[in-house]
Amino acid sequence: MPIAFVLLLCWRIVQSVDQQVYWVGLIFLVVFYGLIRLYRWAYGVDTFKQTQSLDLNATLEQISYWQTSIRLTDYKIDRSNILEHSLAKMLAAVYASKQLHVTQYEIYSALEQRQMPLPEPVYTFLFPAQSSGAKRSIKQILRSLRDIPRKRIRRWTGRERAEYYQLLDQVLTFMESVMENEHDDKRFDAHHD
After folding, report:
1. Which pLDDT score, from 0 to 100, does residue 53 have?
2. Distances (CA, A) of 122 to 55, 62, 109, 117, 126
3. Measured between alpha carbons, how far is 62 from 114 in angstroms, rounded to an integer?
4. Each residue of 159-179: pLDDT tens digit?
C-alpha cells in the first residue's frame, strides 16, 4: 500500500503544477537537445563507438591495408620501400598458397634472386636496385652528380610520380591476375635452378 500512496502523491504533485511550466520545460529540453546535436555535428564528435566484427571479410581487410599503405607512401620514392616489401611478401604468400611443400620464405628468396619468371616492371618495382655500401669510385660520383639535374627535372615535372604509379598499377594488375589464376598447372620448385 505505501507504493500506491507514493504514486498517488506524485500524481497529485504533477497535476498541481501549471501546464505552462511543462510547456516551457519541454521547449527548453528540445532547444538543449538541438544545441547538443549541433555541437556534435560541428566538431565531429562521434556519437557511436566503432567496433570490429569478429567475422570481417579478409579481402576487405587487405584492401583497407593497401589503401592505407599507398596513402602513407604517397609516391615518396626516396624513403624506405615499405610498400614494395609488403607487396613482394604478399606475392610470395600467393605463390606459397598454391604450392603444397614450398614455404613463403623460399619463394620470397627466389623472387629476390630473380629465379622466378616475372615481368621486368614487377621486378623493378618490388626489388629496386639497392645501393651497395662499398666505396664508390670517382667516376660513379661524377656520373651521379651529372644525373642530379635530370632527376630534379623529372621530379619537378611529375614524371617520377607518374612512372611510380604506372609501375604500381602494373604490379597490382599482375598480382590480381596471379590470384585469379587459381587453376594454374605450373608449379614452382624453389630448390630447382
Report:
1. 56
2. 33, 20, 15, 10, 6
3. 26
4. 878 888 888 888 888 888 877
